[in-house]
Write a structure and sequence with these properties.
globular, Rossmann fold, six-stranded parallel β-sheet, about 375 residues, alpha/beta, seven-stranded parallel β-sheet
């Protein structure tokens, strides 16, 4: 039997949920019998330590089309993988050009992880147009396009002038026995001990897209009526601004930003509620992760995956983006009447690792 080999290319594993998703998918594919070469330009990520046997790390100097091309061409000629899968939009042109120059007939696939319209909307006009032009050139030439949610596929299809049927929706691999086991570990945080006030938990990069300022405002409203604390796990450029906001609100004593945590599931399983305040999402990994831990969730009804994950409010309350009052009210209602853990875990099981891996293998022809 011939060896099945997949090449996955990513600029960096440091991008929050995308990095964790790529690692989980690579590990899952390796466990299913596929040899995975993970080509990474920036290997400075704690997620690198989570890769298992069967996943080989191959550094590339850069994902810039001019400077990364020779390395990728040599790699394709030497290894000749059965498929090549990219995970960051701008890498598609690099992968397609490398295939053409190498002479190796390897199918190229791309997974779109973000809501493209919202992502491009935050860029300066010149950069936005350059990015969009590159994608309009590359995406029609790909052998397959994958998106992590239906809204992401619909948005990208409209922007790129492609039929939505060109995209296969494959949800992120999340729920697993490993997640459940890690959720049972001790987080070692005193706020999560028995008998302490309820803890609101948020997990994500400390960047504009997560809209943590609205979450801090909502937490301040909640504290007027009851004791409660807020933990935000993650790192990013807004750390100082968020800490300063908590000081201004007078809530700093009940707000902590512990930074990146290798095992957020231990926190999730002991939090009173997981809150997602995002402006947009590609999918919404943390919602599924918390639900898999049996923890109630509240989320903004933002573009992307949350409404689909929560089935339009069936598995957790959805509120308008940027509305601190509505967010506080939804958390209050959730604390008063949390949904059963069994319901949440059953809903999260739709996004298990084995199912996602099987869908990827089928689409990639592995």
């Amino acid at each position: 039997m011939s060896v099945l080999r997949l090449s996955m290319i990513v600029a960096s594993l440091a991008r929050g949920g995308i990095g964790r998703t790529v690692v989980t998918l690579a590990n899952g594919l390796a466990a299913s019998g596929v040899l995975v070469d993970l080509l990474v330009a920036d290997g400075d990520s704690p997620y690198m330590n989570m890769l298992t046997d069967g996943v080989q790390i191959l550094p590339i100097p850069t994902t810039h089309l001019l400077f990364g091309l020779p390395t990728l061409v040599r790699y394709l000629r030497r290894v000749r993988p059965q498929a090549l899968l990219t995970h960051i939009e701008r890498i598609d042109a690099l992968a397609l050009r490398a295939r053409a120059l190498s002479g190796v007939r390897v199918p190229v696939f791309s997974t779109l992880h973000t809501h493209l319209g919202r992502f491009l909307g935050q860029l300066k006009p010149a950069k936005r147009e350059a990015h969009l032009k590159l994608m309009r050139l590359a995406y029609p030439r790909n052998d397959g396009l994958i998106s992590v949610s239906a809204p992401v596929a619909e948005d990208a299809a409209a922007l790129l002038g492609l039929p939505s049927s060109r995209f296969d929706v494959i949800h992120n691999p999340i729920a697993s026995a490993s997640l459940q086991a890690r959720a049972g570990e001790d987080p070692g945080h005193p706020w999560l001990a028995a008998g302490e006030p309820p803890v609101l938990l948020a997990v994500g990069r400390l960047e504009t897209v997560k809209d943590f300022p609205t979450l801090l405002d909502a937490h301040a409203r909640l504290r007027r009526d009851r004791p409660c604390r807020l933990l935000i796990l993650g790192e990013g450029s807004q750390r100082r601004a968020l800490q300063a906001q908590a000081e201004r609100l007078g809530t700093a004593a009940d707000v902590q930003l512990p930074g990146f945590v290798a095992n957020p599931y231990a926190y999730m399983s002991r939090a009173a509620v997981l809150v997602s305040s995002s402006l947009w999402e590609g999918f919404g990994n943390v919602l599924v992760e918390a639900m898999a831990c049996g923890t109630p969730v509240v989320a903004t009804d933002c573009p992307g995956g949350p409404a689909g994950i929560l089935e339009n409010g069936r598995h957790g309350r959805l509120v308008a983006v940027g509305d601190a009052r509505a967010l506080a009210d939804a958390v209050t209602d959730t604390l008063a009447a949390p949904l059963p853990a069994a319901q949440l875990q059953a809903a999260a099981a739709r996004y298990d690792v084995a199912r996602s891996v099987a869908h990827y293998r089928s689409r990639l022809g592995l």
